Amino acid sequence: MAQFHCTSCGEVEEHDLVTLEACASCGATSVVNLEVQAAQVAKANDAFRAAILSGGHPDYLGRAVCTQGVAAEGLDFVVHAQIAVAAFSEFTEDNDPYGDHTFGSVTIADKTVWFKIDLYDESYSFGTDDPLDDARTRRVLTLLLPSEY
């Protein structure tokens, strides 16, 4: 059973099909298999995360930032957090329910640090219209302490 999202009317439908030709609600042909989309976003997010140590990814554009709480721990802490986040691969249904690798948790010097990846438009003003459009999607990876959420 797969879920499909119509990008025209917003309807979400479940079907036994792998692909869906048109939305049952509005007839639009702009339907997305959410599981396939999540897997593609996860692949891009993983590449983006891994590249934060080398100045960024050439195709998956964006920035890495940290909150005041993480920054207050000092430069060594931030660098160790970035290294751990770049190498993170322990995604489970508990910490990644949508399968898109947008969230994780690492421990640095006995402190929990969360990371979150958000997908924006080119101006970082709104969410991206199409998370699979690498030319127009910008990623923001935020390092934060759980108390700052």
From TrEMBL:
Domain of life: Bacteria
InterPro entries reported for this sequence: DUF3768
Name this protein carries in UniProt: DUF3768 domain-containing protein
